[in-house]
Amino acid sequence: MSASSDTASGTGTGTATHAGAATGTDTGTGTAVEGAAGDGARTGGRRPPLILRNRAFAAVWLGQVLTQAAVRMFQVGVSWWIVAYAVDDSRGLASGLFMAACTLPAVALAPVVAGAVARFAHRSILRTAALLAGAASCALALWAHGGGLPLASVYAAALALATCQAFFDPCLTTSVPELVDDADIETATGFELSTQSLAGLGGALLGALTVDRAGVAGLAAGCAAAYLGAAVLVASARFRTGAPDPAAAGGPAPSVPRPRPLRRILGELPYVRRILICFTAANLFTTAVFVVIPLYTRSVLGGGGATVALLEASLGAGALIGAFTGTRVPGRPTVAGAYCLGLMALALALPGLVTHRLAVAGCLAVAGWCAGAVSVRFVALFQRLVPTADKPGFFAVMQAVLGASLPVASLVFGVAGDFLPPQTLCLVQGIGLAPAACALALLGARTPAPPAADPDAAPEAGTDEDAATDATTDTATGAGRAAGPVGGSR
């Protein structure tokens, strides 16, 4: 289910405001989206791609690509630097602490991010987050260039960059209605979510290679250039102002269903609650792959940055393909999800028995595909089962709950990596996934219909047709971010 996640990235926090479109305005930004629609649409000709006919969206999208690539490049690069260059003893603990620092802000700051996105102008949030991340990267690059870079400073930089990204990602998703016309919202959303995975894949390829050739100084300098470039692009884009309030204009106030507490929502949807429990348990083992890959590369494969890039790219490419093809997996979501988790368990365990580099890359590609396919199927199912008024709060908390397993898994497997060989960690991952797959399979015996009180729900839920629809049309889901194990990109 996507962080993308990433990252474990705070995807769900932006949902609190997206259901009601944009709430923030930016002083002096203009009232229209620049280049929103071309004349070709009126003349009956084929419309050009959205990023070519809407310069504002194109600029913000390029900024998103740069920030996503930078954060992934930093995470992969520093993970490899810790294992290969910086630490002689307790490499597992050091890399686990680093990954925990990269994933904790998106979970811990979820309520703060949601409040900020609802209160402040979205362009200001995006620009400030990119500028602060660029400043942090510049400071780290200068420190590393001077020599004697302490490990604590890298952890501090990781916290700073993850915090900025925790604000940037959900705010960007929420800002889509301010950048495009209403008819283009779904296209823009699908484009934005899918390209995040591509940007993360590119960053993963560059991270370890950059460290091998230019060290942390070169890595941080590259991240700084990407973040500052993103800030310039966002600042150049024109955002629509917020829609006028009908009540303030003298008209009747719209009737908006009042969201209910999450405890009550899940109390009425025990089926959804059990699924979330299954995936929270599964994430404790799937997300450990980000700690295991550098340890496995150095201790088992004896490779360098190019090998890390190959393994990371295999995982990311598989997840990206799975996100696009997951709706074609036959069967009910619970049954298909159980099979995918079972296959993923096998793919993660096999490197513990087979240590050929290409074979390991193939296993990670299969594991990534399973993660992407599961994410799309179950987010689409939740869209059907959860009442419309409850979706913003549900998806925000869902991402926080699933993402909470990332720092825990990073620390647990990081510490274990100092006492157990990486092959054993791979076997533990596969064995740990098996109970979650079995529990999910037991849930597939009966698929409930959505609550009758929800007028927007489909008449039947859980079928293959239901799961295949709206997989990427609701910006609250973050399904397209499935660039890593179940639960999103890191």
Largest sheet: none
**Mean pLDDT across residues:** 77
Based on CA atoms alone, the radius of gyration comes out at: 22 Å
Number of helices: 19
Low-confidence segments, ≥5 residues, pLDDT <50?
1-44, 243-249, 448-485
Q: Give the helices and strands as they follow along the chain.
A: HHHHHHHHHHHHHHHHHHH
The proportion of residues forming helix, as a percent range, comes to 55-70%
Gap between N and C termini, in Å? 11 Å
Strand content: under 5%
Summarize the structure.
By secondary structure, this protein is mainly alpha-helical. It has helices spanning 15-18, 50-53, 55-86, 91-108, 110-119, 122-146, 151-174, 176-179, 185-236, 262-268, 270-286, 289-301, 305-325, 333-349, 357-385, 391-403, 405-416, 422-443, 464-468.
List keywords for this structure.
490 residues, mainly alpha, 19 helices, 67% helix
How is this structure best described in words?
With 490 residues, the protein is mostly helical. The protein has helices spanning 15-18, 50-53, 55-86, 91-108, 110-119, 122-146, 151-174, 176-179, 185-236, 262-268, 270-286, 289-301, 305-325, 333-349, 357-385, 391-403, 405-416, 422-443, 464-468. The protein is globular and about 55 Å long. Residues 1-44, 243-249 and 448-485 have low confidence and may be disordered.
